[in-house]
Amino acid sequence: MMIKVLFADDHEMVRIGVSAYLSSQHDIDVVAEADDGGQAVKLALELKPDIILMDLVMKEMDGIEATKQILQSWPEAKIIIVTSFLDDEKVYPALEAGATSYMLKTSKANEIADAIRATYQGQSILEPEVTGKIMSKMRQKPVEALHEQLTEREKEILFLIAEGKTNQEIADQLFIALKTVKVHVSNILGKLQVQDRTQAVIYAFKNELV
């Protein structure tokens, strides 16, 4: 089966060179080319190719916005970013927009072809430099415990739940409406990602909140 590819890049020589190599492969067919993001969106939604090769910096509409628009209308699209940029202002927005893979233009043509095949099979291909950036950012970002999202009032109610008090008893003790207590309890369960009061109490004890 041929893998249908749409290639969007505003540099004609890049398109010609890469497309020529890809078309020489027995399993890849470059069905269309685009020189700007807007045209890429139109062709992607019209042709529904298996893979979209997307440059980031293009006239009129950049690759990030094009990626967003394509995925909004066609969530199953598989988009490979192929760019010269490795700075944070390009990498993270592209991945957050929904790009499946991220390749650099310094990659060899056969590496891009392999990335197309792998992405077509459902894999996500990232350049080693991109992976390193992501891991570095993850290490820098502190891990937030779920209970740190609780307000002081919610922590107070969680403590009373752990004491075995009912919603009505909590409402009487805190001088608030029963309906308000129920809203707080619902918020607590949601923030702690638990299903019921029992699981909330278990979470509280495990994390030494009570």
Automatic annotation (TrEMBL):
One of its GO terms (molecular function) is DNA binding. GO terms for cellular component: cytoplasm. Gene3D superfamilies: 3.40.50.2300. Keywords: DNA-binding, Phosphoprotein, Transcription, Transcription regulation. Residues 143-208 form the HTH luxR-type domain. GO terms for biological process: phosphorelay signal transduction system; regulation of DNA-templated transcription. The modification 4-aspartylphosphate is found at residue 55. It comes from the Bacteria. InterPro entries: CheY-like_superfamily, NreC/VraR/RcsB-like_REC, Sig_transdc_resp-reg_C-effctor, Sig_transdc_resp-reg_receiver, Tscrpt_reg_LuxR_C, WalR-like. Its main location: cytoplasm. SMART domains: HTH_LUXR (SM00421), REC (SM00448). Residues 4-120 form the Response regulatory domain. It is found in: Cytoplasm. Pfam families: GerE, Response_reg. This is NarL family two-component system response regulator LiaR. It comes from Salirhabdus euzebyi. The lineage of its organism: Bacteria, Bacillati, Bacillota, Bacilli, Bacillales.
